[in-house]
Amino acid sequence: MVVTSGREELVADILANEGKNVKYAIYSIIQIPGVKGYLFVETTNSLELQRAVLGIRDVKRVLPQEIPIDELLKYFEEEKGEYDINDIVEVLSGACKGTRGKIINIDEKKKEVTKELIDVPVPLH
User: Fold this and answer.
1) What pairs with residue 103 in β-bridges?
2) What is the C-alpha separation between 92 and 99, in angstroms, rounded?
3) DSSP state of 62
4) Which of 62, 70, 77, 107 is the most buried (most CB within 10 A)?
5) Spatial separation of the C-alpha atoms in residues 28 and 94, rounded to whole Å
6) pLDDT tens digits, one per residue of 5-61
């Protein structure tokens, strides 16, 4: 389904509520980060989906073709990265998006890193 770019989450929420209230045959709604302007909806037929989106302002059109699950799964594969203490990294999302930081601790159990931001006037941990 093609939606207004940047409004994917709003449309997904509205569609999920419509599906619950009216009992449309909508089984899942997927918003893939990085794929702007599209929502992927699992349904039994596209006519049901067209009825469900009727009146939702940010929906541009419903694309009737099926997408193989293998094409969608490639967006959910985990990237394995090797990082070491003192490596310089860039924050890709969140409040500090776009800033760079130096890794000061790596927690293998939690799969988390602690970084010190270096592009800010006052260093933050």
Assistant:
1) 115
2) 8
3) -
4) 62
5) 26
6) 999 999 999 998 877 777 788 888 998 877 889 999 988 888 888 888 998 999 999
